[in-house]
Design brief:
Layout: H1 7-14, E1 26-27, H2 30-39, E2 47-51, H3 57-64, E3 70-74, H4 77-89, E4 94-98, E5 114-119, H5 125-134, E6 141-147, H6 148-155, H7 165-173, E7 174-182, E8 187-188, E9 195-202, H8 212-224, H9 230-233, H10 240-246, H11 260-274
Parallel strand pairs: 2-3, 2-5, 3-4, 5-6
Antiparallel strand pairs: 1-8, 6-9, 7-9
Binding site for S-adenosyl-L-methionine: 25, 27, 52, 74, 100, 119
EC number: 2.1.1.182
GO cellular component, one term: cytosol
Amino acid sequence: MSDLPPLREVIARHGLDARKSLGQHFLFDLNLTGRIARAAGDLSVGTVIEIGPGPGGLTRALLDAGARQVIAIERDDRAIAIQDEIAAAYPGRLQIIAADALEIDAATLGETPRRIVANLPYNISTVLLLAWLRRAEAFERMVLMFQKEVVDRLAAAPGSSQYGRLSVITQWLCEVRPLFNVDRRAFTPPPTVTSTVAEIIPRPAPLAPARFETMERVTAAAFGQRRKMLRSSLKALGNAEALIAAAGLDPTQRAETVPVEGFCALARAVEAASGSDRL
């Protein structure tokens, strides 16, 4: 491990107070950051991508866990100065990109296998995840911290109240495994909710054929009126009864009872009906 000073000392020296506008909550517990880093598996090959490293607690843990290369994306200039100090302590192993993560195509960064390991800013976490899912094949795995309620949705099974659009899209492309909860008191400042670290591993192939854009359309229509039967909620897509029949579903079903493969069948039916069946 490096001879870098304690995180609290570094934060005080750089005036890195957490900013609500950036969704910042700093994690100082070295046991927790180490546990997150170890959950990412063998880091001695490929690239680890970290989003919003802040004071660098997780960055240090990843490097101490043997990461060959870490690419940290940070938009806060105050945190970039801290990252520069970490890079100097681990020569040639840390690259800092001063940018907004929403504007970076993580699927093109570094060498494969790529892993994303991050304590995500809560205000953009699901937007980032959906962007990465569009390029899921580019990543070996993701170990991400979200609000607990988000992980509950990611891993929710059909028939549960948490099952929704995010559940379907994520499980269609990846296997999701909640790993452990993190108490709000572990952060500075404490968020209002419990957090959960989840492992998200892209599948070798999606659960069933479908186009991403059409899956988004179908799930948006179905869950936009989740208490209604499919024959009502899917009217925005065209002839709902015909689409439901083509997908082999029951028109009296509600979206929360339809398995992922059922939504894939609906997406293919929509494509076929529009004459653009290009799966």
